[in-house]
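User: I'm writing a tutorial on reading structure tokens. Could you give me a worked example: one chain, its sequence, then its tokens, then a sentence or two explaining what the tokens reveal?
Assistant: Sure. Here is the example chain.
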Amino acid sequence: MPTIASPLTLPCGTILKNRIAKAAMSENMADHSHNPGPQFERLYSKWAHGGCGLVISGNIMIDSRALGEPHNVVVEKTNTNEASLKRWAIAAKANQTQLWAQLNHPGKQTPRVLSRDPVAPSAIPYPAPMNVMFATPRELQETEILDIISRFAYAAETLKNCGFSGIQIHGAHGYLVSQFLSPHHNHRTDDWGGTLEGRIRFALEIYRAIRTKVGPNFPIGIKLNSADFMRGGFSEEESMQVVDILSKAGIDLIEISGGTYEAPVMMGKSSKLKKSTQKREAYFLEYCEKVSQLIKTPLMLTGGFRTRKAMDAALNSGACHVIGLARSLATNYNFPNELLADENCQSKIYQLTTGFKSLDKFFPLEITWYTDQLHRMGRGQNPKPNANVKLAVLKSLCSFGIGGLKNLSRSKEI
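And here are its predicted structure tokens:
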């Protein structure tokens, strides 16, 4: 039976040395030109030596006009420093570790202070209180859709040439690919919307364009929602159809997550989580058990894993092939080595609060506090599990500048 220590051969022929993967966490610490500096080398070197078989980067955006955060890394034809990307890749691939770049476009999920002209499949605004931070988008024209697809392909080819081991398309958590898949966000009546066949076209064309650039032996994965967990959104039934279609198209690894920032199930904050799910730890294990019967493509399951016993049980059952870890590695970069050495090992989860319920509800503490831990490691420091939550929120707000503070002050929720 496979365990977290077992190697895995992907369809393209790439071999992961073990089944532990660092799932993407947005670093938000690129320089003003959106290039990675020495902080990325220090942070990813820690994760490489920490024992992961696969490390997936945080959001690498493909258009500097469309950012999720102020200090995202961007790879595009202008202003990209390939030397810095190469140094990042060298540091992250130490210890026989695979480094994959997660490519993303935020669509309308870009803060007002970062984009005055957000785009989306359709011009549908976010409900309150999210409309405070995110402006109503305009609908993409077909020429713009084709341009975005070509940007994904260009970024993938560039990152391969700079030494990255693979690519992951971010198709989850409410970003642009996820918006195209969702009937809640995509009301188009042309070939890019309507039926599931139309809504999946954007993701498929991105995959095909990347495959053309990187070749058949280079790993390409995708991160998908098991469901959006919101009324009228991307359903579990549609998700299974999408997984089946992408598997047949030749994708090498499908990471399963779920939810959006409107319904953040991926952070374990939903009343929809069953007691049986909580006991087995992984949030989307039942979904993976179903979909693994439909496809042969390896599945990576992310969200909720805390103990080696639960990880090995999920692998032994055949529900998934790779275990995705995120927050555990933000507070303990050596956690994979500890898991491999001790069958009774488990991670500690921190209950985060600013002390103000309204602020906790409005602000994504699970992102800001853990991102601050990444910044500490990027500076060469160790994680600080007792770090002040309110201070992490303040640092995050300051990164958005005065405009971000003004938007927050206008919120009726605080």
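What the tokens reveal: The longest helix spans residues 389-409. Residues 402-414 have pLDDT under 50 and may be disordered.
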